[in-house]
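Appendix B. Chain record.
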Amino acid sequence: MAEKDKVRVLFGFDADGYIIGWQQEFYDGEQWQAPFDTTGAVEVAAPDLATIVLGATKWVNGKLVINPDKQAELEAEANKVTPTAEQKMIASLMLRMMAIEKGDTSE
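Structure tokens predicted for this chain:
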């Protein structure tokens, strides 16, 4: 496969300028192809693409810049445990059972 130091990339940004996706050129076995309009494309070292944190990385002055606070915020949200409806129902039933076992019949 042919290797290049830099590939053409077209980034997609959110309203705050953070990268939320990208398209990149590829080698099809014979030549490099860019299946997108390259008008707004930039050249990026291929290994650098692996460092992008979607929603926390910006393209600033020709470099990828990660905002560590934004990254931590995204990771915290992604790792937040949200109980399912079934888990909530089981917890409610357990509380009712504990109340009945204590002799509380005020329901």
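Further analysis of this model is presented in Appendix C.
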